Each structure stands twice: as structure tokens, then as C-alpha cells.
Amino acid sequence: xxxxxxxxxxxxxxxxxxxxxxxxxxxxxxxxxxxxxxxxxxxxxxxxxxxxxxxxxxxxxxxxxxxxxxxxxxxxxxxxxxxxxxxxxxxxxxxxxxxxxxxxxxxxxxxxxxxxxxxxxxxxxxxxxxxx
Length: 132
Ligand SMILES: Nc1nc2c([nH]c(=O)n2[C@@H]2O[C@H](COP(=O)(O)OP(=O)(O)OP(=O)(O)O)[C@@H](O)[C@H]2O)c(=O)[nH]1
Ligand SMILES: [Mg+2]
Hints:
Layout: E1 5-14, E2 17-22, E3 33-34, E4 37-39, H1 46-58, E5 61-74, E6 79-91, E7 102-106, H2 120-130
Parallel strand pairs: 1-6
Antiparallel strand pairs: 1-2, 1-4, 2-3, 2-7, 5-6
Bound molecules: 8-OXO-guanosine-5'-triphosphate and magnesium ion.
8-OXO-guanosine-5'-triphosphate binds at residues 5, 7, 9, 27-29, 34-39, 53, 78, 80, 82, 116, 118-119.
């Protein structure tokens, strides 16, 4: 198996909704909805990676992030470690810079969208937290 990919993932949250983009068909897990984010590079921390990726992918300036959970998942073709953060303070308005389909979704809608398998635990945790 290849080296486990370290990925910084941001749950962009505002007023009970999260911002999602849809992965391009040619990408790994193509066609599925995702939380914006990407690979942590060799010379950076996961916080730096999240800040950089959310600026590159959706043009927001992350002002605060708090850890939600970490997920280790093995797909058939690769293994990932997702470090997932809630981002509820940011500058600017998220807008895909990569021409992806995008949108704000209420937590209750998430169950009906198609995500990569590893994301099920993120959805579960968000719904649990919202129940309090
Ligand atoms: N961004 C993101 N990646 C996810 C999620 N769930 C999940 O399994 N992944 C996996 O994490 C891996 C890395 O994410 P990525 O493709 O966004 O990485 P990146 O932005 O650096 O992409 P690049 O290689 O095009 O530069 C992919 O294999 C992707 O399938 C998610 O919710 N968001
Ligand atoms: Mg990405």
C-alpha cells in the first residue's frame, strides 16, 4: 500500500449550513460532494495546509479553526488520514476557484448527498453535535 495521504479538510459553517463543492469526475472519488481541503505538503503544518487550501480552492481567509475529528480510511486505491476542522470564522465569501459545482447545505440535507466513504463519520458527528 502507498503511504497514507495526510489531508486537511474544512467544514465551512455558517447559520446551520455547510459549504460543499463537488469533486470533478476525473479526480479521486469524482462526482461526490466534499468539504474543501487538500494534501498537507512536506514543509507545512496541517493548520497552514488548511489555510492555504481554502484560499486556493474557495478563496476564503480562515480566521479560526477547531478540530472536529481525525479519520483514517483505506480506499481500494489509496489510504488517507483526514484531519477535519470546523471553520466558522472566515473572511470573504466561499466560491470555487476550480469551477466545481458548489453550494450551502443544511445539516439535514447531508444524508441525501453522495460523499466519499470516509466522510460518513464527519456527517454523523455534525448531526450529533447539532442535536444538542
Ligand atoms: N478535500 C477533501 N478530500 C477528501 C474528502 N474526503 C476524502 O476521502 N478525501 C480524499 O482526500 C484526498 C486528498 O484530497 P484532495 O484531492 O482534495 O487533495 P488536493 O486538493 O491536494 O488535490 P490535488 O492533488 O488536485 O492538488 C483525496 O483522495 C480525496 O478523495 C473531503 O471531504 N474533502
Ligand atoms: Mg482538494
